[in-house]
Amino acid sequence: MKNTSRLFLVILCAGIVSCNNAPETTTTKTVSADTISASGGQEKVKDNESEKDIVKVAVSSKDHTTLVAALKQADLVTSLSNAGPFTVFAPTNAAFDKLPAGTVDGLMKNEKKEDLQNILQYHVTLSALKADALHDGQVLGMVNGDNVTVTVKDGKIMLNNSATIVASIPASNGMVHVIDGVLLPPEKKK
Amino acid sequence: MKNFKLFPVALFVSIVSLLFVDSCKPKNAGNAVTADAASKSYVAPGKYDEFYNFVSGGFSGQMSVYGLPSGRLLRVVPVFSVDPEKGYGYSEETKPMLNTSRGFVPWDDLHHSELSQTNGEIDGRWVFANANNTPRVARIDLSTFRTAEIIELPNSAGNHSSPFITENTEYVVAGTRFSVPPDNVNGDVPINSYKKNFKGTISFISVDKATGNMNIAFQLKCPGVNFDLSHAGKGKSHGWFFFSCYNTEQANTLLEVNASQRDKDFIMAVNWKKAEEYLKAGKGQKETVKYAHNIYDEKNHTATSELKTEVIVLDTKELKDICYFIPCPKSPHGCDVDPTGEYIVGSGKLAALIPVFSFDKLMNAITAKDFIGDYDGIPVVKYESALYGEVKKPGLGPLHTEFDGKGNAITTFFVSSEIVKWNIKDLKVLDRASTYYSPGHLCIPGGDSKKPNAKYVIVYNKITKDRYLPTGPELAQSAQIFDITGDKMQLILDFPTIGEPHYAQAVSADVIKNNSLKFYKIEENTNAFVTKGESSAKVVRKDKRVDIYITAIRSHFAPDNIEGIKMGDDVYWHVTNLEQDWDVPHGFAIKNASNGELLVMPGETQTLKWTPEKPGIFPFYCTDFCSALHQEMQGYVRVSPANSSTALLFSTGKNVAPVDSAVSK
């Protein structure tokens, strides 16, 4: 998504250049660079007073450093600092460690960015769902377009029968449910 | 002193000079803007402006806040008029702010803004504003950018000479433009008994140092003239206040002609420290009057309006050494005091010069009783004895002056559509620049304080023919920004304004921006109808009154299904925004509400009164795009006939089995 907006900026700058007959393109490059650094994204807004948003909740948890690094690599920090409302299933570091060796490192490579985005977006759904709003058999449509199925047994809430909610933390723009496994989206049909 | 013959001559001279003085003609607008103007006013997307600009909205009754130098409109602060954008004057909590001794007044005329000061410097705490028509003064809190307090002024009409302040914001003044019979006497008198029955009143409103709360400390009863504008002394002249006066002819009809008879009107110098002494000595007269005092409480988000009935009046005719008149040519308008407090500039609308008075000379003249007589019991100082000097042929129709803190003054000229920079010491004109067109006030950041920050002067124009795309019979008024860091004043931008800008003030953003409130803490919300969590949401019936305690959070209301409302009920929707996050207001609207809508800040409670007009289903929804599921933020209320047995029910998200057979089978 960000690539698209960058492309748009470039096109926009090109438009300005041709309108103004500016002698060199370097000046317009400076303008676009300024624009990007000046805004910096919603996550950069200094605000220690408001309730923490989902990103700030994740950043403040020592059990979620892998998730935070992955969100940054996948360019999802700005989106999750947005008004929401989101429900985020947040795998712990230990959950990521349960994946086959090398999986996380592989996903963190630039050429695997789309795969990483697909996996992370499979952990996010729109609307702020508290734990008591999740019930057995419920199907949640996730941001990546696939579904997650909820099962509730003996007071335990599981997702896709593979990850259990171990804690729930309200955030200003939604809910964070900490889970003990990573949700893997279904293989895409070619 | 009356000089009927002089007037037509002066007018003729004015017209002749208007026609032939080339320098006074507005130059071609295209030539006036130089190539680097755009870069000087350009603020990159994502960057903050350097200054806040608080601009009066004139007949809109509001105050608008712009960023400078970009001219971006940041906010319109509702003050003396209802504002559908903010819910101001529509919610039950804000309605009392617009209450007066004559009841609810939904629209007034706001003329001047004045930022609070400490030691003569802008401190960024409050900005004051005056209502001209129903005389009032408002205080706007600059942590919330909301009107915090409004006080009405008895014995007044046309509160124009206001809301100027002393250098530590000890007082805000309010001088009445239209002299009228005082409130406590029978005002049913012939209009042409002006000289006998009409009085001018000046109010000194004290401002509490900690809370900002206003109180009419005393009023000065003065001769019946028109008090126009004013400014406090500062530094050496702290303790004095200066008011321009016109219509010293005391005309009561066709003032256009009859108030322009005299060669000189006055600037009235007021020794307010002396007035304080008299007040302390019990020389004031308690008068029975009626005025409203409205305060908005930030803890319970509720305004209260109290009717007060007493004011203390000092009669300046009897208490001789409070007021002195200084003759000032031709119906003075602006009355401005330089940063040192020594020079007082009067701008006669019809004068061909600008007189500059010296505070030291004025003090000497008063001590030496260098008077030419008295006017209605007030001593009149000899013009030359108070005069420092005159700026000769500065332009046509001088109105207002601000100061750059470097020894210079800049004055607007309405008739010749220009601003003129002149040196206070040698009274020589240094530069002039055309404005487009017919400027009234002007503003240099801190330009009426001890410490101007003279990067820009902003000029507020009345006429914009040919400046903007036409929009029917009425065109926007404008602000024009000039860079004044060099020898030549350079026009860099103009932008349209909200309503008509009269006075405006500007201050470095650093003084204000870090104190800006982000949200109201829900645990500190003491509104009588607050709902502090969804589990406390409820609907309470008491006879024909139904109170709905409803919460809003991304992205639903609780409750969002309500039944059991009946015809004849008065329904109060108390909407609490549970968000504790900056810039996440929720709106509230319900179909067929005859009053309006609500806009509720995070952590705040606001109330909409709703009287159903027919049985049926009425949807309600959030009006402020709050989130990705904003369109889902809605609910229904069912209204039944008065005699129905529909039970009172309310819920959110309960998957109750549908009652309609089509779905449940």
Account of the 3D structure:
The complex is a heterodimer of chains A (190) and B (665). By secondary structure, chain A is of the alpha+beta class. Chain A folds into two domains: 2-39, no CATH class; 50-179, FAS1 domain (Roll). Helices cover 37% and strands 20% of the residues of chain A. Chain A contains eight helices and seven strands. Chain A has a seven-stranded mixed beta sheet with strand order 2-1-7-6-5-4-3. In chain A, strand 5 (156-159) and strand 6 form a beta hairpin. Chain A is globular and about 45 Å long. By secondary structure, chain B is mainly beta. Classes of the chains: A alpha+beta (190), B mainly beta (665). Chains A and B meet through helix 2 of A and loops of B.
Could you state the CATH homologous superfamily of one domain in chain B?
YVTN repeat-like/Quinoprotein amine dehydrogenase
Query: Strand tally of chain A, please?
Result: 7
As for the CATH topology of one domain in chain B, it is: Methylamine Dehydrogenase, Chain H
Q: How many runs of DSSP E, i.e. beta strands of chain B?
A: 45
Oligomeric state of shown chains = heterodimer
Distance between the termini of chain A: 23 Å
N-to-C terminal Cα separation of chain B, in Å? 98 Å
Q: What is the CA-based Rg of chain B, rounded?
A: 28 Å
Unreliable spans of chain B: 1-27
